[in-house]
Structures are given as C-alpha cells and as structure tokens.
C-alpha cells in the first residue's frame, strides 16, 4: 500500500510517499517483547509474565513467557471467539455475550490448550533480538511503536480492511502460519529497495501486523471509548459492534526524518481515549497530505503518528542494507496438511481468476480436503490462466485497461459470498 501527495500549498511535511507493509499474525510481545533488553524504554517483557492453564482454577499451574520462540505449527486460535477468551480469560458464550469492562490478558494459555494439547508453550514465547536481526537493526536505527493495536479483535481480513478504509464493513472473520525468516527477508528486500530509491528522503515506511495470531501480549486491550466506525453491527452469533480494539501488534516507523532508537508510546489525542491502531494509517495520511475528510468515525478518533518525524534535516547515516535473516525452521513444510481458513480464502480468490467460481463446487467444496501442496498448484495455475487470457486479449487489440472475463457470469439472483462481492470488480459483476 502506497500513498502519495498531490500538489497542495498547505503541505508542511517532508514526506511525499508513505509505504505500508502489513505482516501477518504476531503479537508485540511475541516479536518485540524481549527488545526491552535493547532499550528499557520499550514496554516489553521481563520474564515474570505468565498465564494460568485454567483461569477458573485459583490453584492452576502457570506458564511463564520465555525467549525461545521458534516456528509454530499449527496456528494458535485467533478467531473472534478465541480472542475473546484470550483477552478476558473466559470462553465467549451467547448467554453472556457482553465482555467485562477490563481485559485480563490471562486466557492465552487456556485457549491454546483447548485448541491443541501442548500449544501453550508456543503462545508464551517471544523472540530474542538476536533471532530477528532485521528487526533488531530497524529498532536501533529508527522507531518502534509499543502501543499499536489491531483495529478489531478478529482475524486477518477485517483488520486489513481497517488499514485501507478505517472500517471492516461488518466483516468479523475471514490465517496462516508464516516462516519468520521469510517475513524478515521480505522486510529486508522492501527496505533496501526503498533505501536505494532517489525518493528515500521523502519517504515514510510503516511496518505493522494485521493481528496478533493468538500469541500472548501483556498489555491490556482497550475495551472502552472506542467508536464504531460506521455503526454497522456484525453478523450472528456475535453481533459485534466494532467498539473494541484487538491485541497489541508490532509496528515500526522508518524514515531518514526519524532519530535512531525512537520509541513511540500512546498518542496524545485527538480524544482522551484515542489509541494507535490500523485506522491511524488513513488518519495520518489525511494529516500529512492535508486531505479534507476522514473516512469514518474510527480514523477521526485514532491517533496519528506524524509526530515521529522529529528531525529538521534527513539523516545521511541510515543503513543501506539490513542483516541476513536467521533460519529458524529445521523441519520440512507439511505439504499434506489441510488448509487453514485463510489459505482456503486464497484458493477461493484464485477461483475468481480462473472462472471456477461459477461451478457448484465454489466456494466450500472447492477447498474441502485440499492439501497445502494442491492449493499451491491450484493458485499458481489459476494465476497463469488469468495472465494467459490477459495476454491473448492484448494480442487481439484489447486495451490493457479492459477487464478480462473468463467464461459467462453467474446468475446475479443467486446469493454471493463476501469474497465474491469483494472481488466482483475483477469480473465486472456489479
């Protein structure tokens, strides 16, 4: 995601391009909690943090938060009901749907053990700075925000929608296990490309995570004073009002206009309850680029982070390259494993490209019993088919702006899934 300035006489910031990189499924403590060892100002962990195995048993044994995180498979829970239990320490129930006033952050272990026996240790681990050298370098050279929350206590897609539009439009569900070294490699590639750009002195790179992925964080999630972006209520059975934030996630601000080793805590406004969250991105874009209107009530409320640009002149000592990521996974990928919910959605998106969305197997039967290896092959094939059709259309004289349509469109009277609606523009089915 890239935002660029238009001509404006009122422009007062040195930034002309904002680049947003959203990573996947990690809490702040999981990725950066132990960075407190690098900089005591960071609101990280000390090693005394723990969660009980059972929140209802006062004598329950507890699992301490440790610094030996590694590859995690399968995923910890991060559905809306799983997050409820992690944050409030009790399972969600339709008989008692309203959350408590305060977040206890003591249900991560209980939820993990309910997901898979033995998973508690995995969610109560974080990375030593030395294990994630790319992030260590960025933390030392630029800025960390240690109070940035996901916009909604739900999974990937709703939170990514907030990044773009400061609302999830009522969506509360959709994620995947990721190799940390691959994420580090991607960040390294993006940073080095931007650093080599002639526009570097006019750039701000923001790296954040869509949501916490079920991993522990000790900072209580804000549960009051959060406005619904558009008063849309989510579907049953939760009827979520979008008036709570999700768990804290890692966030970096990177620019030659930022002092090394900066730590940004909570915002100073615009409201007493304002926080940094994904809606802070469109809110800050509005501020820096002097745009006229907010998108929703949420970005009007969210804190903005232009305050991180404190220098009067750009730095000339920003690193040109970042360290090589460390390999953490020492086992082979489980290509015979069944798909996660997010992986299923990726396959269903690919079905829009190759025309399979018209078939009766779409959306659910298409992905039932599909393995990871089969999904990779399917998505690659669908993308290739779509690109081939685009090339053939160009060869026949079609303008590159025209939409390539694979096959006949489905009956518009039939109900459509959220994904179909979301990607309807691809097939021009309005």
UniProtKB/TrEMBL annotation:
BP-aspect Gene Ontology terms: phospholipid catabolic process
Top-level taxon in the UniProt lineage: Eukaryota
DNA-binding keyword on record: no
Xref: InterPro entries: Alkaline_phosphatase_core_sf (IPR017850), Phosphoesterase (IPR007312)
Residues spanning the membrane: none
Coiled-coil zones: none
Keyword entries, A-Z: Hydrolase
GO molecular function: hydrolase activity, acting on ester bonds
PANTHER family: NON-SPECIFIC PHOSPHOLIPASE C4-RELATED
The protein, known as: Phosphoesterase
Provenance organism: Corchorus olitorius
Source taxonomy: Eukaryota, Viridiplantae, Streptophyta, Embryophyta, Tracheophyta
